[in-house]
């Protein structure tokens, strides 16, 4: 017991909750040849097939001439009946005569859409019914959209009331994290079932064609495409370093970027950037979309004045447009431009990608326009800032 504001509060040792809810199910009953059913006499019915809801059997009863003789066949009657040997079954019901014109104006009698003062209906024993003796006037039915091609469609929904008790959980089962990637990596390392070998420099790496094809459209075409060769068992790789190819294979199997420092054997930032640049080029070669994005993100995070020029050249060569735009903005920043121009990478950039200088000039100029007019009068031209003659550099229209 505890006291709050002088009032004693009970702190329970355990708790439980009872949920009162319904188990719902529906059945559609179609009557073809309605006109032939007329004249059966009151009290005679057409019964649907038995269907189950909430663990009990049910059936629909349709009375073409009505259930009550006193109504003189002026009404049709419609009921739902318990067909199981059970007692005191509490349920909600809905009986619907379907509008067959497509207008959706169905005739519905339902427990589900209104509050019930007396609670759900109780069916005492097998054969107990709920429904309406005067469900619909027969003369109105026969001129309505409910009757089409001498056919009626009746839908019945039953909601059996159930009580569900929840108490404190005594035991729990812990769902382990997925280890699919590790399992595939173990398979790669064990070389069990490998059917393809890659000769990369002095190293040989074995793998599984199906896994490679599942991850890379390039490998899929190479092994299983119209001009591919499924019988090949050895491929020589000349344009990728062994450590890069090994890292790419690891990603293909695990979907996780391997530890770059383990690949390089170095913790230097320049080694890290160099590996990621080469891995990005390899990912582009084999169309590994997720690996490409991961590498682009890492290069953006590690971008500095020493590596931005080489990263920009790589982005231009492989048309990594987001990475390229990020690099251009980085270089054009007044805080970075001077230091970048002094780097060895920038000297290489001017020689290998001269068309990039025009785009860089535009980026610098766009930044210049954001300055005030008083400041802009004191600025040198963008080309003089870059220390290069761009009169002969033309914009190259990118192929689409």
UniProtKB/TrEMBL annotation:
<dbReference type="Pfam" id="PF00651">
    <property type="entry name" value="BTB"/>
</dbReference>
<dbReference type="InterPro" id="IPR000210">
    <property type="entry name" value="BTB/POZ_dom"/>
</dbReference>
<feature type="domain" description="MATH">
    <location>
        <begin position="24"/>
        <end position="158"/>
    </location>
</feature>
<dbReference type="Pfam" id="PF24570">
    <property type="entry name" value="BACK_BPM_SPOP"/>
</dbReference>
<protein>
    <submittedName>
        <fullName>BTB/POZ domain</fullName>
    </submittedName>
</protein>
<dbReference type="InterPro" id="IPR045005">
    <property type="entry name" value="BPM1-6"/>
</dbReference>
<comment type="function">
    <text>May act as a substrate-specific adapter of an E3 ubiquitin-protein ligase complex (CUL3-RBX1-BTB) which mediates the ubiquitination and subsequent proteasomal degradation of target proteins.</text>
</comment>
<dbReference type="InterPro" id="IPR002083">
    <property type="entry name" value="MATH/TRAF_dom"/>
</dbReference>
<dbReference type="InterPro" id="IPR034090">
    <property type="entry name" value="BPM_C"/>
</dbReference>
<dbReference type="InterPro" id="IPR056423">
    <property type="entry name" value="BACK_BPM_SPOP"/>
</dbReference>
<feature type="domain" description="BTB">
    <location>
        <begin position="194"/>
        <end position="255"/>
    </location>
</feature>
<dbReference type="GO" id="GO:0071472">
    <property type="term" value="P:cellular response to salt stress"/>
</dbReference>
<comment type="pathway">
    <text>Protein modification; protein ubiquitination.</text>
</comment>
<dbReference type="Pfam" id="PF22486">
    <property type="entry name" value="MATH_2"/>
</dbReference>
<comment type="similarity">
    <text>Belongs to the Tdpoz family.</text>
</comment>
<dbReference type="GO" id="GO:0016567">
    <property type="term" value="P:protein ubiquitination"/>
</dbReference>
